[in-house]
């Protein structure tokens, strides 16, 4: 059985092999074909929030359905003969994509949150077993994803570790601002003779969304004697450059369902073989595979749907239909989101949250100050208003002003661009916001429930 259920033969007769074929005028996917691949999206919704849940084309969904039926047809045969080798094939593709040394360094898990639990679990054990001392430090960015912060609380703080957050500016003007704040936090962590056992670094922060100079921060950690470096890169693969040899982290995770066109939910966790004791790494769901290595443990955590991990070869086929493959898609999305962000900021008289080189396929755009956004709750209510009344789906971010600050912008929209988006999506968002401004809209007018 082939991995994508393509049972066609490549053996043609001699005459067939010598037939002349008309060259394709355009070998790459057309706009019409892209629309067909995402025709299952709600046609009435302006969807400029690929970053939250990703998107999966119809051809990959069809491949997923075939895998699901293959399992249901004969579960025993599927389990004993097909599941593990085909998960291995997906892992091998990821290994090449991220430039890892060995496929054993790559495990497939449900999502980046699961990967974080695996990494932080072994940190917690090190505290409990006396390998780390009470008060030893873990450093994370202030803008770390909420679930990762909670995992650090559950596994590190509870075990006796001290957590220091790197305060980051926003809007951010340069990589140097982030590097400076990270160095300050590292010095604070090492004060009083403490050891910094772990640094958790985002590659692309979620809210606000900014590409972090991850290679430089990892280098600083190495020079500063940090024991382990974990890069939470939930958005990275398919969105920005990912190279394990260049980044040099001990652990690195990214979702495949956000920007890499897999169905929910699947992520990879890279664990550097040369620096990490793999015997201490275990999936948080203990199955019969416990002790057989993280990749094997993760490939079977009990009866469940593994199809999202098996469609990676089909995703590669979809990506290869685009000029430049995944690199072409990344450039296309980056260029488009910057252009649309600049258009929106100009239309609203606001600004972007970072320079163009510090965004990938998402960018923060300031909302009009007249909206009077004064809390996270205001952002949630305004987001719901845009969804329910105008069918626009976009995340919003509240940025409190600081003492003496002249910037009056407290609300930002995080817009995404994926291959299915069109200019009309952003023009519609622009026009709705302009309409609200003309109508004198203020967040105080929104219902409280």
UniProtKB/TrEMBL annotation:
Keyword presence, RNA-binding: no
Alphabetical list of SUPFAM superfamilies matching this protein: PLP-dependent transferases
Sequence segments annotated as region (Disordered): 1-22
Domain of life per record: Eukaryota
Domain Aminotransferase class V: 89-279
Keyword Nucleotide-binding: no
UniProt keyword annotations, A-Z: Pyridoxal phosphate
Name under which the protein is recorded: Aminotransferase class V domain-containing protein
Organism: Kalanchoe fedtschenkoi (Lavender scallops)
């Amino acid at each position: 059985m082939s991995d994508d259920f393509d049972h066609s033969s490549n053996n043609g007769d001699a005459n067939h092999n010598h037939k002349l074929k008309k060259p394709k005028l355009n070998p790459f996917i057309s706009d019409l074909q892209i629309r067909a691949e995402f025709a299952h999206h709600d046609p009435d919704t302006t969807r400029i929030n690929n970053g939250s849940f990703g998107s999966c084309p119809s051809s990959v969904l069809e491949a997923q359905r075939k895998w699901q039926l293959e399992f249901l047809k004969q579960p025993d045969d599927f389990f004993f003969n097909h599941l593990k080798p085909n998960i291995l094939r997906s892992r091998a593709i990821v290994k090449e994509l991220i430039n890892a040394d060995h496929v054993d360094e790559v495990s497939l898990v449900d999502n980046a949150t699961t990967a974080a639990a695996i990494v932080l679990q072994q940190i917690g054990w090190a505290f409990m077993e006396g390998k780390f001392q009470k008060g030893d430090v873990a450093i994370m960015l202030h803008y770390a994803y909420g679930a990762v912060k909670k995992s650090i609380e559950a596994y590190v703080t509870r075990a006796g570790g001290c957590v220091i957050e790197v305060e980051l500016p926003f809007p951010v003007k340069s990589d140097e601002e982030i590097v400076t704040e990270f160095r300050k936090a590292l010095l604070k962590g090492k004060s009083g003779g403490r050891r910094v056992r772990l640094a958790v670094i985002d590659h692309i922060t979620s809210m606000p969304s900014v590409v972090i100079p991850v290679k430089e921060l990892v280098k600083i950690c190495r020079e500063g004697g940090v024991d382990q470096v974990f890069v939470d890169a939930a958005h990275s693969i398919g969105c920005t450059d990912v190279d394990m040899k260049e980044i040099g982290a001990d652990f690195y995770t990214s979702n495949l369902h956000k920007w890499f066109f897999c169905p929910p939910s699947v992520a990879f966790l890279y664990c550097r073989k040369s620096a990490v004791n793999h015997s201490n790494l275990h999936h948080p769901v203990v199955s019969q595979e416990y002790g057989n290595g993280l990749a094997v443990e993760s490939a079977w955590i009990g009866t469940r749907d593994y199809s999202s991990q098996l469609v990676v070869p089909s995703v590669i086929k979809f990506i290869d239909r685009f000029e430049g493959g995944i690199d072409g898609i990344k450039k296309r999305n980056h260029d488009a989101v910057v252009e649309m962000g600049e258009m929106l900021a100009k239309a609203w008289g606001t600004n972007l949250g970072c320079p163009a080189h510090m965004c990938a396929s998402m960018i923060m755009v300031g909302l009009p100050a007249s909206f009077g956004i004064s809390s996270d709750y205001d952002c949630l209510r305004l987001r719901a208003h845009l969804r329910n009344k105008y069918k626009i789906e976009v995340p919003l971010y509240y940025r409190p002003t600081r003492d003496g600050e002249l910037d009056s912008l407290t609300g930002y929209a995080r817009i995404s661009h994926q291959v299915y988006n069109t200019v009309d999506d952003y023009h519609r968002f622009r026009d709705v916001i302009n309409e609200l401004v003309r109508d004198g809209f203020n967040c105080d007018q929104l219902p409280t429930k």
